[in-house]
Design goal:
mainly beta; 0% helix; globular
């Protein structure tokens, strides 16, 4: 079985494990349900063109925490 905390996830990728995820860019937390799609960070806009340097579109920035 895949360890969800062993990698980072990006905007538009399907969530496989429900739980709390942390944006590695700004440190904010967001709960995602399995089957949803990861979205941009509401705080720092990681995952968009307006995101911080290194965390734009196609960047992996969500980390499973619990």
């Amino acid at each position: 079985m895949e360890n969800p905390s062993s990698r980072l996830y990006k905007n538009g990728e399907q969530v496989k494990f429900s739980g709390n995820y942390q944006c590695v860019s700004c440190g904010s937390f967001c709960y995602f349900n399995a089957g949803e799609m990861f979205r941009e960070c509401d705080i720092c806009f990681a995952g968009t063109e307006d995101g911080p340097d290194g965390y734009g579109i196609d960047s992996e920035f969500w980390r499973f925490v619990s």
